[in-house]
Amino acid sequence: MSAPEHAPGGAPWATAALALGDDALILSHRLAEWAGNAPVLEEEVALANLALDLLGQARALLSLVGDEDALAFTRGPEAFTHVRLVELPRGDFAHTVVRQLCVATWQELLYERLATGASPLAPIAAAALPETAYHRDHAVTWTLRLGDGTAESHARTRAAAEALWPYTGELFDPVEGLDEVDLGALERRWRARVSDVLTRATVPVPGGARLPGSGRAGEHTPHLAALLDEMQSLHRAHPAASW
Amino acid sequence: MSEVSGVGGVSGVGGVSGVDGASRAPSLDELTAVAGAVPDPELPVVTLADLGVLRAVRRGAEGRVEVELTPTYVGCPAVEVMREDIRAALAGRGVADAVVTTVLSPPWSTDDISADGRRKLADAGIAPPRAGARGPVFVELGRAAPAPESRPVPCPRCGADETTLLSRFAGAACMALRRCEACREPFHHVKER
Fold first, then answer.
1. How far is CA A119 from CA A17, A81, A99, A123, B69, in A?
2. Distance from B112 to chain A by nearest Cα, in Å?
């Protein structure tokens, strides 16, 4: 990679690269869990592709901060700064689809903004942007199909939206290095897009307050420790292993 | 200052024999052709030059050959294979220590695939990306009628325009899966970006 080995000490964009890299890494891991478990083969391939795209983004972003493997495999839960939304268990397929809708819509809007900036995140955001558009397209299609589908798929999609909604506020928490982004405007555009899709899917847009705390501050659910336990186990067993 | 060979104009350089002098160092144009002729690991019917992922070949410090490669998708797992294949191909021309770096800017677009590359994809039964198209066509489901795609993706086998999207994601990150409604054959389509 053309990225530096280590970010200049305390550069603000390094905090942002770590946060967005962690978002991509942890969500990638959750999506990869569908391999062998997806409802149909095409969907298994699709989810694995989404996971692969996100892993690529994570690698590029974390490499801006330091050694990607050390960052992914040697940190404890409190050192991760992703939003809690991405660490929640994958749940049923509706949960995965609604989470993808929330995250992909947010990533596309955020990357669009970052791509025009001057920080070292800009080239990564610009290269990842077309991918996030396909991720959103995938999530929108499934949200409409499930929400406006059978009574069962509708109930599950609605339950997923209600369960995940309190976690979405963290997507708009201030992050050092994202000062160039108007997070209030981003949230309004995100809310409009996601609400439009849910409404067309006949799923009521959930209300209610966000949960206290934030993954951006290293506050996480117990699900993260379990996820890391699995994700980091190979590295712990064989610290210097390579392919 | 380093001598740089742009990769845009050399895709036609096919006959690099390099046997006209036993010890002559290969020129940058020759090395560019050698690197560009490496087949894509996932779509071996096209070369890296066809795909438009080879950005530059130059001599850097101490005459070391440096190659710039851009990934199609940020997480494309083929990049590491491409890097090794390029190094091996250059080593075959006596360049033992080429450095292959990955660059993200400007981002790769399917418009970077050459006309030759599009033809080779189609010949292999893979629908090439539509020139100038960008991103997904958002499909409306639910109660609304499906929106027709603005431009057809013709079947690479029979040429019919009536084809249906089966899955946005297929065997590689850059592909979608479609089916021809005329000949009923499924086929891959390189997604525009």
1. 10, 19, 28, 8, 22
2. 14
Residue B49 token pair: 């030059």
Mean local confidence (pLDDT), A30-41: 93
Tell me how many helices (H) and strands (E) chain B has: 4, 8
Rounded to the nearest angstrom, the minimum Cα separation between A166 and chain B is 26
Q: Which residue of B has its CA nearest to A40?
A: B167
> What residue spans define the domains of chain B?
4-102, 115-190
pLDDT at A1: 35
- Under the banding of pLDDT at 50, 70 and 90, the label for residue B144 is very low
Interchain CB contact of A112 with B (< 8 Å): no
Helices and strands, counts by H and E, chain A: 9, 0
Q: Is a pLDDT exceeding 90 seen at residue A49?
A: yes
Q: Is the pLDDT of residue B21 over 70?
A: no
Most A CBs within 10 Å: which of B74, B138, B149, B167, as the mutation test of the A interface?
Answer: B74
The residues spanned by each domain of chain A are 12-237
Listed residue (B72, B71, B54, B70) closest to B4, CA to CA? B54
Give phi and psi for A185, each to the nearest 5: -65, -40
B143 pLDDT more than 60: no
- Per-position DSSP letters for B155-172, written without gaps between them: -TTT--S-EEEEES--SS
Provide the CATH topology of domain A12-237. Ferritin (1.20.1260)
CB atoms within 10 A of CB A204: 13
- pLDDT band for B107, please (50, 70, 90 cuts): very high
Using CA atoms, how far apart are residues A113 and A15, in angstroms rounded to an integer? 17
Chain centre to alpha carbon of residue A5? 24
**In the beta sheet, which residues pair with residue B144?**
none
Share the mean pLDDT of chain A.
Answer: 94
Fold of B4-102: GMP Synthetase; Chain A, domain 3 (3.30.300)
B134 pLDDT more than 60: yes
